[in-house]
Amino acid sequence: MKIRNIVLASVLAAAGAGAFAQAKEQFFPGLPYRTGPYAPNGVPWANGYSDYLKLTNARGGINGVKIIYEECETGYDTARGVECYERLKGKHGGATVFQPLSTGITFALTEKAPGDKIPLITAGYGRSESQDGTVFKWNFPLAGTYWLAADALVQTIGKKEGGMDKLKGKKVTLVYHDSPYGKEPIPLLQERAAQLGFNLQLLPVTAPGVDQKAAWLQVRQAKPDYVLLWGWGVMNSTALKEAQATGYPREKMYGVWWSGAEPDVKDVGEGAKGYNAVTMQHGAEPQSAVVKEILEKVHGKGEGSGPKEEVGQVLYMRGAMSAMLAVEGVR
After folding, report:
1. CA–CA separation, 54 vs 261, rounded Å?
2. What is the DSSP letter of 262?
3. Can you say how many angstroms the Cα of residue 211 is from the centroid of all Cα atoms in its chain?
4. Are residues 198 and 177 in the same domain?
5. Is the pLDDT of residue 3 over 70?
6. Residue 169 belongs to a domain with what CATH number?
């Protein structure tokens, strides 16, 4: 990872060289989704990303170079994401980096980035195989891939059983978002199932995931030892409600890091008690130094991107972290 980070810094520097030479500004495009069924999860991420860039400018920019930030709404739609990419890539002297926050959009942009020589940072999402930098030279899957997350979940339930060998004969069900994102962990889980001897059941859920009764009927019938949840947006809270309705123990449910934030559990209340999710960063960080600085230098001047109450929450911090990775890559 250290080597790839060095490469990322070099690529970002090369991509932004023209902008630095022409003007004291650096263009960071944004591909958020503030509307549609995934907005409750997309908005806090986008606000964290935007606020961190504003904080960077308040600190004096990147080595004195100020950031220009412009968003184009994708609605978590791949076709719109590609349209936004094409619209923004050449603006303000050229895009520095894109962060799609969508595995589907990442797949589409992976074909375009090499020709345009624009790096793609996918912090905790995207194409798992893009960690092979010899093949995917313009993709930078920082902070973990979905194969890593799936493997971490398998190891976690293995430890709970008393050892990986104890997984033999167990039944594990993957309830997943029927999209490129949701399908990412399947190859890893199939490999581990063959290696460790557990039975893997795959249950796709049609986006956006408000109707899961058929999937949870199958869960009730199969009685798996564990359920892995690979959801996003409303699918997560719906899954927890369906688990409660069918009597499936939430302590036997384990979610990926996009199924473990405040919007996923707040409407479920006590019904979410016992549910587990892997984390990508520490989690909510309301007392962290960077949060206090954002509240002072951004929100304190009336320039916050959203309500100050969300500053420090899980998805907000993930957006801020993603912006930090790009900023430090340029620096």
Report:
1. 24
2. H
3. 23
4. yes
5. no
6. 3.40.50.2300
